[in-house]
Amino acid sequence: MSSDKPGPSDRAPHMEIDPKLLESLVCPLTHGPLIYDRERNELRSEKARLAFPIREGVPIMLRSEAREAD
Which contiguous run of DSSP H or E holds residue 55? Predict the structure, then answer.
């Protein structure tokens, strides 16, 4: 499947995300927990099978910006 969304190698080096922010975030679709993937700089929802990007330290929690997780 082709997409114009940036892949992991296209992203700028990531900034650290505030751990307190991570504790309060949930998946916007399932309201379930998110897993922080430091290597890919994204938050993954296992239940929704989506990965939400983090840009300049800010999680982008929009379905339209998410990629399907592996």
Answer: strand 50-55
